[in-house]
Amino acid sequence: MIMNESSSPPSTNDPSDGSASVQTVRPFSQAWYDRLEQTLGPTACKQLGFYAIPDDFILSVVIPVYNEERTLRELVDRVREVPIRKELLLVDDGSRDRSREILAELEQESTETDTLRVFHQNPNQGKGAALRRGMAEARGDVVIIQDADLEYNPAEYPRLLGPLVRGEADVVFGSRFLGDQPHRVLYFWHYLANKGLTLLSNCFTNLNLTDMETCYKVFRREVVEAVLPTLKQDRFGFEPEVTAKIARRRFRVFEMSISYAGRTYDEGKKIGWKDGFQALWCIVRYGLAD
Parallel, antiparallel, or unpaired for β 217-220 and 142-145? Predict the structure, then answer.
């Protein structure tokens, strides 16, 4: 559980000058955490998942974009609402709808605490290629992958970042299948395929993940620098490839539950059965060697 901006202590009274003054406290700052610790105690704060983020911390959010005009602006707005200093790296992968126009508008709206940069891939090269480009451009302390649709909720960034900021993990996977977060009920065969691919991946990596194919993968900068030069997959094979290479380098991997509002194919879902077979090949290929 993490307090959001609206639920954090909004102000304090400073009677030093004889009058009440309002002092804003930034969520996840040291002052914000100190107040919670004074109120709840250190043990309760740890159990509830509260922690402080350093003032100079920057989160890099890598967002591949391909024909997402219906959801793109709302998704970016949701990312910007997360009260953490960050940079948004949007990689347009040869979109043929209005995504490029929307990206041009969004690029003009960067702020000091939320910078936004746009990159273009021409022609379409695939999600994996777009992610490699975005990760190569990232400057933050931690990098998170975010799809441009609304299946994954950016409000969950603070929970996912906890193990990394506290120094407990090098990589965090957000799992749709751990069970304590809401998810939209959709395709049984997709669920079965995800579970099967995760099981096979675990056999090669010796990890006990529940959701290898998840979008939400969060990396410390050192992990990106170690793994990025070796990545080759241009499409959805990115997921098993990066998982295998993280496991081979023995980075500390944590998994945390996330919510999931999946899309139907009519709503724009892109992954298909061919990608499933490609994932199988990648699991075996990268499970054996880089």
Answer: antiparallel
Q: Is the pTM of this model over 0.85?
A: yes
Q: Which residue has the tokens 């997709």?
A: 190
Token representation of residue 10: 């909004």
Rounded to whole angstroms, the Cα distance separating 241 from 215 reads 13
Task: Provide, rounded to the nearest whole percent, the portion of the chain with pLDDT above 90.
Answer: 76
Query: DSSP assignment, residue 52?
Result: P
Q: Which amino acid is at 33?
A: Y
Query: Which among 280, 74, 289, 252 is positioned nearest to 163, based on CA atoms?
Result: 252
pLDDT digits (tens, 9 = 90+) for 6-41: 444 444 444 445 444 446 788 999 999 999 999 999
Distance separating alpha carbons of residues 277 and 254, to the nearest angstrom: 27
Domain locations along the chain: 5-48, 59-288
Residues 257-279: b if buried by 16+ CB within 10 A, e if exposed: bbbbebbeeeebeeeeeebbebb
Span 40-50, pLDDT tens digits: 999 999 999 99
H/E run at residue 114: strand 114-120
CATH 3.40.50.1110 fits 59-288, yes or no: no
* Cβ 146 vs Cβ 215: under 8 Å: yes
d(CA 77, CA 47): 30
